[in-house]
Each structure stands twice: as C-alpha cells, then as structure tokens.
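Interim report to the steering committee. The following record documents the input for Amino acid ABC transporter permease (215 residues).
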Amino acid sequence: MNVLLDHLDLFRDGFIGTVSLTAASGLLALVLGVLIAGFRVSPVPPLRAFGTAWVTLLRNTPLTLLFLVAFFVLPQILFPGISSYVLGVLALGFYTSAFVCEAVRSGINTVPLGQAEAARSIGMTFTQTLRMIILPQATRTVLPPLSSIMIALTKNSAIAGAFNNPELFSVQKVLSDKGFNVMVIFLWVALAYLVLVFLISGLFRLLERRMEVAR
C-alpha cells in the first residue's frame, strides 16, 4: 500500500494517460473502422480494394512494428516535430480500425439483403442506405465484438509507454528503477487495468441492454 500512497501522483498520471490514449485512439478507430467497413461493402471496386488492402495490411502488421514506423518514419517523411502522444494515438487507432472494420462488416452482413434492395427501390443512395438503414440495424450485433476490441485496445496502449508516453505500464519501469518490489508494482498496475476493463465492459453492457429487442 505504501508504494501506491507514496507515488499516488505517478499512478494517477499513468492512469489518466492510459484513459486518454484509449479514448482518443478508440474514437479514431471507430471513425476509420466504420468508414473502411463502408468501403468494404461498397459497389465501387476501387473502394472495396482499398478497404481490403487496409484491413489485410494492418491486421497482419505487429503493433510494435507499427509504432516503430509511426515514431521513426512518419516524422521524417510527413510530420516533423509531431508529439509522441499524437503518434501513439495514430498507431493505436489505425491498428485497431482494421479490427473495428471487420466487426462492423460482420454486423452489416447480418442485415437482410432485402433491406438494402428496398432502400434502393425508393431512390436512396448507397451512402444513405448504409447510414440510415443498414448501420442502425447492425449496431446491436456489432456491440459485443466492439467491447472486446476496446478492451484489447486498452491493454495494447501499454506499448505506447515504451515510446515516451506516460501510461500505467510505464509506471512500473519508473518504480522498478528506484528499487521497489516489482510484484507489488505489477499488482497495483493490474488492478488499475482491471478497473478500466470493468468500466468498458459495463458501458457496452449498458448499451446492449438499451438497444436489445424485446422478446
């Protein structure tokens, strides 16, 4: 307990850093994932090809390698001087977007084809059909896998600590270097991650209950 109380500010900053990284990259992943999922089911072949390439590349690239590219290649080519926080969010968000895309695409495929055909018959465009007809119905199916993806994202954010981002897992390195018991440090870090996982699970369970169909 003394390890926690004596370094409460450090644990607090790490907790806030993990929450911030998870929230920002999660939002980016959701936006990109839904957009790429739309590309994957689009009637336009180049968009489908782009969506397929996006998912294939990012899902088969180790996240650590993606961080290395983001931190050591991207600033040299496009954005010199960009902050490590933004780079961490980009790496996590882009990587997670591929998994969000596949979850959303699976949800889209559960919607009966007749829904899209009916929408087209009354003159709705593909974008209108997707936004107003398909996605609202697919959301209920998508929520459970999205919960697992966001939990995985929370744990993946630990990699950002190795790239100059304050977060929970980086706390153990600071305290370990000061000679504190590693097992005690890991215990408090694990409990903090457990709190975040329970909060994310609870939020998605609440969303599922609000959107469930009465039987």
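The chain has a mean pLDDT of 85. The committee is asked to note this result when reviewing the revised timeline.
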